[in-house]
Amino acid sequence: MARDLGFDLVEVADKADPPVCRIMDYGKYKYEQSQRAKESRKKSTHILVKEMKYRPKIGPGDFATKTRKVEEFLGDGSKVKVTIMFRGREMQHPELGRRILDRVAEAVEHIGRIETYPKQEGRNMTMLLGPGQATRRQREEAVVREHAEAEARAAAEAAAEAEAEAAAAEAEAGNAVEATIEATTKDAAEAS
Description:
alpha+beta, Ubiquitin-like (UB roll), Translation Initiation Factor IF3, two-stranded antiparallel sheet, 58% helix, rod-shaped
């Protein structure tokens, strides 16, 4: 019957008595499965850690540009590692680096918060900033929206599957009617 319809016969439950099989287009089924998996990977949240490097003697224009970029990263939901790089005798004045890190934290406090306070690591001083409350709320709303869309897709797929099963049952009933007509015609021909 599957061959006549141009579909595949797929064993669904081999442990059942009798085993359960299903008539379906297996290639299409595998393709849809891979597309769903790809879509779920695409929508999963990946928190990236971006890095922005400053120097102790940074100018006001460069400071403003880099700080705007840090705000952008935090707005996208990424964490930002702010690094002050010291060279040569600049190591003698870590308070300059600390002052710059404090200015960055103050400039982005409306969108982010300090996760790891400034600490000296060799020639670098680092601080980790994380996205603030507004960004977290936006991410949570996005997750809720994705779940609702997934449920709607699942309902649509279930409806399409029910339609396909109804069409297959209808085709099967049509085949049974045709077989009955052929048998009746054959009996009538033999009788005459």
